[in-house]
């Protein structure tokens, strides 16, 4: 007998023994944990611009290196109109002798503090009536695991911040689509007849509208509030969910356990909540695995149009688009956000497949 049974509360415990599901959950949990904690310990604010470190390549070693130190020193010396005669590094401290044709104003040394490479400068010795000054400067040590972008911002922090945005968009917008689509499709399928026909005609009419245009209109009318973006995207992604749940409802409605519940006098909402929706959960979960990445990609497109996530915030899709534009000279801008996005989408797809194939989800 291949008929679905009423939902079993032990389904999750049984499904948890499915190793693909556990692996997918572990990957998603690790990514979520990194996105949550990573920016707090990276040492770089996501919107901090390091003008001396533009398009730095990924590295485990601390910056600045000898070349970066020399370039920064030469630039500051030119702005101060002085010459850097000698310099040597010792224990993270740079010893420099500056000289000029006029007395050097100590206040000009503040230029070192404004640099991303150097810390405050301390005068050690002054000679030649102030025209020669020996100073000690503490070097600022920084590590850019994923390198930096075209604006000199730490890519590691930005990828994790983008993960927060993308995961939030995927989960919250999908929750909106799930709530509307499941309720709408279940009611239409169970009611049947003219009510079903009318509700599905409404879905077809909405389908005929350019959904991205619909998103743009909603954002333009109600503004670009962060939460509104989730609701707006979810509000146009429920149509497929409604159709799928309707089809599942029509099938499950013919099963014996539904007929038994009706014979016992169970109300329509009770039957939908206790029997129809739980027995369609496998298909719903499988579709959610497709819906979440689709929502993430839709958010990226909306942000690309200037109607979604705005600078300095970002999302994985926005970072991937930026990386694609700079792939010739800075491939790391594309690789790291694409890896996080791909791992997330793959884990979601695997999770949906594992859930659909687990015992008690309506498949044998």
Note down, in words, how this protein is organized.
It is a single chain. The protein has 14 helices and 4 strands. It has 364 residues and is α+β, with helices and mostly antiparallel strands. Mean pLDDT is 84; it is low at 1-7.
Observed structural traits:
Gyrase A, domain 2; 4 strands; 14 helices; 60% helix; four-stranded antiparallel β-sheet; MetI-like fold; 364 residues; 9% strand; alpha+beta
- How do the helices and strands follow one another from N- to C-terminus? HHHEEHEEHHHHHHHHHH
- How many beta-strand elements? 4
CATH topology of the largest domain, what is it called? MetI-like fold
| Strand order in space, largest sheet | 1-2-4-3
CATH class of the largest domain: Mainly Alpha
Q: Taking all residues together, what is the mean pLDDT?
A: 84
Nearest-angstrom radius of gyration?
A: 30 Å
Give the N-terminus to C-terminus distance in angstroms: 10 Å
Give the fraction of residues assigned to helices. Answer: 55-70%
Low-confidence stretches: 1-7
% residues in beta strands: 5-15%
- Quickly count the domains: 2
Principal-axis shape equals elongated
Largest sheet: 4 strands, antiparallel
